[in-house]
Amino acid sequence: MSTASSGPAGPAAAPLAGVRVIDLGQYIAGPGAAMVLAELGASVTKIEPLAGDQARHIGRYGESMVRAYNRGKRSIALDLKSDAGREVAWRLIAGSDVVIQNLRPGAVDKLGLGPAEVRTRHPRIIYLSIAGFPGAGPSRDRPGYDIAAQAESGLMSVTGEPDRLPQKVGVPIVDAAAAHVGAQAVLAALYGRERTGRGETLETSLLETALHLQAATWCEYLGGGPEPTRIGDGQPHNAPASDVVPTRDGHIVLSAYAEEHWRRFCRVMGREELASDPRFATNASRVAHRAELRAVLKDCLSGYSSEECVDLLGRNQIVTGAVRRYSDVLAGADMQASGMVVDARGAEGGGYRALGLPYRLGQAPQPAPPAAPECGADGAAVLADAGYTQEDISALRAAGVVA
């Protein structure tokens, strides 16, 4: 693997120390995959258009997108439509281990920087492409965003109330999941390269990721189950399962469909007669009498606060969770204990808070890489590391090749 000579440094034991990554991505999926590698210690260089990642131009949420998925990287802004800009890109790619891109269909190939070209020149490179739709399918040339994948994977058809419009998940969950799927594929390819000496061409898509997020539901359907439909809260074949129950000050979700758990719930509530009630004695009967069951759950729990419900049922090993707002989550003891909120340090002081990796490596502290760079902020340093002289850099700037 290449030896990183500069760039944001991770902890001494960072598993990807020495790995160099070129990030050609925009928005979430590509940049997110590259940032996972950065948090694991890789040196990541983000190559942006002269105007920057398109997320920089879509308002407040776009800026949050940039902050959330570009920490720990260096940025260089290049005119990749020019011969000189592509020559810079090729020099940077030559010193890299991994290239990641999620640009619109065909864009990297038109620039001459697609996986076939890159890996022909540099067979050890691992090249990850994240598209909207599978590369072998008829929709391969369509632009694909998170919302299109939610719609076309069936996810929206099972989300929401049965008598209302289909609903998207409240966050771009497919984009975010694709980032981790892509990073996982890169990690596997890096391990494979240690054994074979060869790189790999990797492909995934938002549609495939969205399908995989629904693996259990799809497995049931592929096995002859009925067409899944929207039912709001609850699960179609179990009860109570994922049911939303009102409390004195909000809502909880409750799952107690295993017979032992249901009987325990009845004992804890002082309503043991419910366990032998023909309407509720078995899971099948509870599903068949879901409306009556929900009325019973409301009667049992609406006099408690959400926190009292969580405490009471949790102590008795019954699965429950309070429906919390972001402010409640942030103030909660579990969030504080997780250490997931990290301080992304600014290059010249300042910075912002963000979420770190959702797992830990042994006793190592949660990585807290530097804040996302401004567009092109590290251009001169990146060029110098690639062997360009100050005169070369000045000439590239004067020609409008590098911002």
TrEMBL record:
Signal peptide start-end: none
Highest taxon in the source lineage: Bacteria
UniProt keywords, alphabetically: Transferase
Stored InterPro entries: CoA-transferase_III_domain, CoA-Trfase_fam_III, CoA-Trfase_III_dom3_sf, CoA-Trfase_III_dom_1_sf
One Gene Ontology molecular-function label: CoA-transferase activity
Transferase found in the keyword field: yes
PANTHER family in the record: BLL6097 PROTEIN, SUCCINATE--HYDROXYMETHYLGLUTARATE COA-TRANSFERASE
Name of the protein: CoA transferase
